[in-house]
Amino acid sequence: MNKNKKKLILIQLNELNFELVNKYCSKYNLKYLKKIIKHKKPNYITNSENIYDLLEPWIQWFSVYTGKTALQHGVYRLGDGKNYKGELLFNKIENLNFKVGAISPMNLVNNLKNPSYFIPDPWTDSSSDNSFWSKKITSLLKIAVNNNSGKIFKLSTFLDILLILIKFENIYNYHLYFFYLITSIKCKWRKALFLDLLINDIHLNLLIKNKPNFSSVFFNAGAHIQHHHLLKSEFLNKEKKIDPIKDAYYLYNTILQKYLFSKNDKYEYVIFTGLSQDVNKDPVYYYRLKNHEKFIKYFNIKYSSLMPRMSRDFEIKFDNQADTENASKKLSEIKTVEKNPLKIFETIDIREKSLFVTLTYPKKINRKLIINDKNKNLKFYENVNFVAEKNGIHSQKGYLFFSENLSKLFGSTKLNVKDIHNIILSYFNA
Predict the structure, then answer these.
(1) CA-based torsion, 99, 104, 107, 111: positive or negative
(2) What pairing do the DSSP bridges indicate for beta strands 335-337 and 377-379?
(3) pLDDT digits over 393-426, tens only?
(4) pLDDT over 70 at 1, yes or no
(5) Mean of the pLDDT values across residues 19-33?
(6) What is the pLDDT of residue 78?
(7) CA distance 225 to 397
(8) Taking a C-beta distance cutoff of 8 angstroms, is the pair 120, 105 a contact?
(9) Exposed, middle or buried: residue 144 (CB in 10 Å: 0-12, 13-18, 19+)?
(10) In this predicted model, which residue has the larger pLDDT, 285 or 374?
């Protein structure tokens, strides 16, 4: 690749449903989303796995990074990307002597030799690049996302946000930050929009400053909001006065403006959703532990460390296999005290000296609901935060858009998510 050739950006609009996006574009003239759709169609609609349990974003984005199907790369849990031993897309491009940058790439650890910048996703245990600001942003995102189902940020978190806003300022977005911050007290989904806007401003700042040949940026607010509020869309429920879906798409229209506005831009782009979402006709209630460590200790479970993951998931590490198996047994015995008792943790993956646990209780939790493990009773409501009533479920359909100069790279064949790997590599003459 000629070093003077345009640089490439991978914009990861996680799980966005562009059939629904198109309806909002038609009604509200979201011109930058319209610009990438072109004649009401994406460049490609991709496919993915045929097994529903494998339709998780942390699996499918890892297929993009590896060029392999889920069964081939074997990474099935968020945070498990660190266990993969092969070379990934970012490593391969770096090894071709190109500069690489990444902001919040889902399930990817920083194993790059010298990244232009690297800020891991908030759910993966990984270091950032060595800069002061990347370390500060990494810490902030972990706190903010893990508190996403809580009511309010701590003062120290607000101060960190303020410092980062000053450092990576985009004065044209200050009104949006203020609006999202104030209204998120009532409209909690706008906290996620605030964070995606912040991620975008950080990415643009670092992109312009460091000029990597390949950069990726991951946006998750749209997926989060669709999962939890899809049935509030004005195109699915005309009785709803506030439409969180419209909020999300308006933000992404604003974000895309920054990448598409200039004819003299030095960047090519690939915009990809990985998956998309369909309406869930049987909504499930999602809850997250308020304080994971306090809850686990209450049941006298001995462990060495605990890492909250996305939404309902968390990983517990132990000093030995005996503690691991003992913890698995105790967690599996925790049930609700009701006429038809249900397990709280139906999904417990036993690994070597660790457990990957999902809070699977699917019903609405009232203030009187009690849980026990044969020895102790505990008010469940006081120990969890309501995350959402899940309205959207994963679909294997993904939407792919790219700048006109890249059309020859993509050919005319039907694409699987894993094929994006080799197509991006081919841009760098790999």
Answers:
(1) positive
(2) unpaired
(3) 999 999 999 988 898 888 767 899 999 999 999 9
(4) no
(5) 93
(6) 92
(7) 18
(8) yes
(9) buried
(10) 285
Segment 310-330 mean pLDDT: 93
Mean pLDDT computed over 320-340? 92
Matching residue, tokens 């397990």? 343
Read off the tokens for 139: 């810490």
Query: Which residues on neighbouring strands pair with residue 7, listed in sequence order?
Result: 267
Amino acid 139: pLDDT: 93
Which tokens hold the place of 178?
Answer: 């203020």
**Residues 350, 355: Cα–Cα separation, whole Å:** 5
Taking a C-beta distance cutoff of 8 angstroms, is the pair 123, 108 a contact? no
Q: Measure the N-to-C terminal CA separation of the chain; round to a whole number of Å.
A: 9
